[in-house]
Amino acid sequence: MRINPRHTQKGAVIILGGATILVLLILAFIIIFILEKGLPVVNLQFLSSKPRDLGRAGGIFPTIIGTIILPVVALLIATPLGVFTSVYLSEYTKETTLTKVIRFGTDCLAGIPSIIFGLFGYIFFVITLQMGWSILAGSLTLAVMVLPTIIRTSEEAIRAVPKVYREVSFSLGASGWQTVKKVILPNALPGIVTGVMLSIGRSIGETAAVIFTAGSSLRIPTTAFDSVRTMAVHFYILAREGISQENAYGTAATLIIAVLIINLTAYWLMNRFIARRG
Amino acid sequence: MKLVGEKGVRRILMTVAFSAISALLLITLFIINEGLPFIFRYGLKDFLLSSDWNPAAGKFGIFPMITASLWVTFGAMITGAPLGVAVAIFLSEYAPRPMMKVVKPTIELLAAIPSVVYGFIGVMVLAPFIRSYFGGPGLSLLAGSIILGIMILPTVISISIDSIMAVPRSYREGSLALGATTWQTIHMITIKASKSGIIASIILGLGRAVGETMAVIMVAGNSVNIPHSALDSVRTLTANIALEMSYATGMHRQALFATGVVLFVGIIILNSIASVALRKRTSKR
Question: Which domains does chain A have, with CATH numbers?
Answer without folding.
Answer: 44-277 (1.10.3720.10)
